[in-house]
Every structure is written in C-alpha cells, then in structure tokens.
Amino acid sequence: MSDISSREAVTVAVVGAGQAGLAIGHYLNEAGIDHVILEGGSRVGDSWRARWDSLRLFTPAKYDGLPGLPFPAPAGSFPTKDETAQYLETYVDHFGLPVRLGVRVERLSREGDGYVLAAGGRTITARHVVVATGAHQTKRIPVWGATLDESILQLHGADYRNPTQLQPGPVLVVGAGNSGAEIAIEVAHAGHPTQLAGNSTGQIPKIAQSFNGLFFWYLANKIFSIDTRIGRKVRPQAQAHGGPLIRLSFKDVTAAGVELVARVAATIDGWPLLEDGRRVEVSNVIWCTGFGHDFSWIDLPGWSSDTLPDHDRGVAPAQPGLYFIGLPFLTKLASAFIGGVGEDAHHVVATITARLQAGQTTNLQGGGVRHPQATASRAFAPPVGRDVPGRSNPATTHATRSPTGD
Questions:
Q1: With a threshold of 0.70, does the pTM exceed it?
Q2: Which end of the chain is less congested by CB atoms within 10 angstroms, N or C?
C-alpha cells in the first residue's frame, strides 16, 4: 500500500476498497489485468469499524467470504463489525491487492480514449473505471428534522455507537429497517422507553435461517433476483427503503418492549408528529433513515448525479468502460452482502476482459460496446458452482435505500 505518483496510467482504476472493490481486485488479479484500487480512507475496513458497537452481519459466516477466502469464523456464527473489518484487511494482504490508501477521487472525466481521475494533486488515467463506493455515502435526514426542539438529542444511525450517547428519557427510532430494529432493541434493553417509527419493510421468516442460513441464501441469490418476477417486483422497494428484516422479526422488536408506531410525518411545537396524528414527546431521536448516493464527482456527458446510475448488471451502457459494483440489489438482494458481491464482480471483470481481448474499451463517438459474452466465458471462467449473471433492467435502478448492515 504505497504512495501513488502524481500521474499514473493503468488499465483499470477501481474507486473504493470496500468488499465490492476488493472482489473486483481479486478477479482482476486472476485475469492478469493491471489495476489500482483507490481508497479515500486511511485503513481498509474503516467504514465497518465506524458502525455501532454491537453490529453483527445479518448473514452467517459461511456466506460472508469474498471470492477465494472463506470468512475465518464458525459457519453458523454472525461476525462482528470489527471482525469484518479485519477480514477485509486480511483479504488485501492475502491476495496482495494494489490498494492505495488516502486517495480520495474528486473528479472522474473523459480524456482521449479513456478516463481520467483527479485525486488532490494526483492524476490517474485508465481505460476502464469500476465505481465501488457502495450505497452508504450521504446521511438522509428529513428536512423537518431541523425543526425539532433543541432539547432533543438527534443522532443519525451512522453516528450511533451505543446507548451511553443518549440522554435520559424516551427514544424515538425513525426507520423500521434492519438497523432501526436492532438499535431500537438495544436502547430498550438499556432502559429507555423506546418507539420504532416507520413503515414495515417486511421480514424474512426465521425458518429461512435454518441449516446455517442455507434457505435464506438461496432466497437472496436465486429468488430475490432480477431474473425472477418476484425479484423484479421486490427490487424497487429494496432499493428505496431497504431490505426486509433478516435476522429479527417485528415480534422480537415488540418482545424487547419497543412500541411500533406510525411513520413520522412532520413536527408540531418541536415534537415529532406521527401520520396517525399522535404527538411524540421524546428526549432522543435516532435517524435510521438510510443513506443517499453521491455521484456528483462523476463529470461525464449526460450524467445524472442524484440517482442510482443506469447499468446492465453493473455495466454502464451509456458510458462504455464505466462499471458499478456494490449497489443495492445490483442483480439480487445478496448483491449488497459481503458474500453476495462475488458473482457481480466476476461478471464485471469478465466484461472488461472480453473488451480488452476484442480491442474494445471506450467509444467516445457514442453508442455502446458489444459485450462478447462467449469470449469472456472462454477467457475468464465463472467461479466453480456459480453462474455468471445475465441481464438487468436499467430503468428500475433510480432509487436510494436504507442500509441493511451487510
């Protein structure tokens, strides 16, 4: 993990060294394609270390490994956030991935027949760019949050660590996804009267976690997929509001003493006002309302920075040579999970490999680049026991979501 020169040319630049970027790096290594992985943070895994103290992955360790390296924990256990961060660091060292720390990309633009990335005083040119910055970029808080009474302590879920941060008295957790449910249970157990506000995102039946989560993993990969009718129906909801509760049920939430209440609609006299007309007087509000996407640093013709990008299984059709990985429900519910990103990464690298072999990189005159799938399959075989995904519907990608914790 050495310093980068002031100007460098590579075949592929990967932006982001989270699980998605590292999976891309692994397959690029296997394909023998020179690349660099640019990471703005000072340490791989820091985005996990910064989450709340008790966070565990929502999937068993058996399904939490990146390509080529199983997660080092008992198959049925649920790894902690710090174990996950350490695993990512170990992954980099194990495969010798070319991660450059402290390099935050500020602008991506076109130059000649490729792309140029600006990062401070550094410039990196690349024929292909993979954006692996993930789903958790900007905190989402409703505009009326600024009108809450000054006596109320407000924390976004990204800033919550444990109940010791809270004031004495009642807590309102806003957002009934996985993060909201887990945090609500924790603060209730700490002795705070707790309410969880928001529309249900659904829940995965606990029986799905039987056999070390085998049935759930099948659902997350094969049923909740863009290749099935039910998956295409679920996808917009999962992208906009987060996925269903995975390890918990709402029965678990209420059993912990948490009151489920309606969605918060506004404020009245400085207090949260629920959609059913109730005014909630609390001492603390924890916003588990998810994250927005910030692609404002991408400066390309026709680019829209305030939505999820159009893509065909991670391949940007309108921007040849540009790819995305780690987005919510990229091809399936498991796309955002550590153990589920591998197939998406393989498909992206297979596409890059095929284009390089065909001598086709970026087409600056407009129009797409043909995807010679047969060439890719011969040159870069899919992982054993896995299928290379097919095709998605880019029209359904314009949304944001709440985090799932994986």
A1: yes
A2: N
